[in-house]
Amino acid sequence: AQSVTQLDSQVPVFEEAPVELRCNYSSSVSVYLFWYVQYPNQGLQLLLKYLSGSTLVESINGFEAEFNKSQTSFHLRKPSVHISDTAEYFCAVRARGGGNKLTFGTGTQLKVEL
Amino acid sequence: GAGVSQSPSNKVTEKGKDVELRCDPISGHTALYWYRQSLGQGLEFLIYFQGNSAPDKSGLPSDRFSAERTGGSVSTLTIQRTQQEDSAVYLCASSLAGLSSYEQYFGPGTRLTVT
User: Fold this and answer.
1) Which residues in chain A have Cβ-Cβ distances shorter than 8 Å to B44?
2) Per-residue model confidence (pLDDT) at position B53
3) C or N: which end of chain B has fewer Cβ atoms within 10 Å?
4) B103–A100 CB contact, under 8 Å
5) How far is CA B39 from CA A43, A60, B88, in A?
6) A23/A91 Cα distance (integer angstroms)
7) Could you give the CA distance from residue A80 to residue A71 in angstroms, rounded to a whole number?
8) What digits encode the pLDDT tens for the residues B23-74?
9) CATH architecture of A2-113
10) Which domains occur in chain B, in start order?
11) CA A87 centroid distance within chain
């Protein structure tokens, strides 16, 4: 079984400031890792994923996440946030090799202020 | 192209009534998933359909919950004798099979309120 912990339920940040959203996971097997984003009044969208290879993955809108196996973490970072980044961010894992269900964290509400 | 659609978008029902929630996946997606998003509890996996295989029902919280998928496309999630703790947003997702199955596409959800 897998579990995902997002310790920060809310993260307020000023525009153009850097941000880090934390994600830690627990699993007895190797996993794939994902960040999904839910903008206000919209459905969940895949932001980025780690499947294999380079442990640093990037999204098209400037977010990046780094898989750290020893710390079982997959923190999401952006060096300079924009108002439009205001959304809820969910970290998720999926076991490799079988079963397609995603196990999600409880989400982090990112609020970008002027 | 069309994304995953769900209906109704909102449903208010009285405790004890049965409800049906519908999901239309993306055309060509063979895998379909149901999740529940409760306040403060993140997203919880409910059930997963893949082609003609037996569904993975391991996430269904009780025998009041059931789901079917007809013709490998549309799916219906049924909750019998609804309880107040069933109030949540029910999300449907679909994906391709095989190596592309890692990316799940989510619908807008059905907000269920049990009074």
Assistant:
1) 104
2) 86
3) N
4) no
5) 16, 29, 7
6) 6
7) 25
8) 999 998 989 999 999 887 789 999 999 888 889 999 999 999 999 998 879 9
9) Sandwich (2.60)
10) 5-104 (2.60.40.10)
11) 12
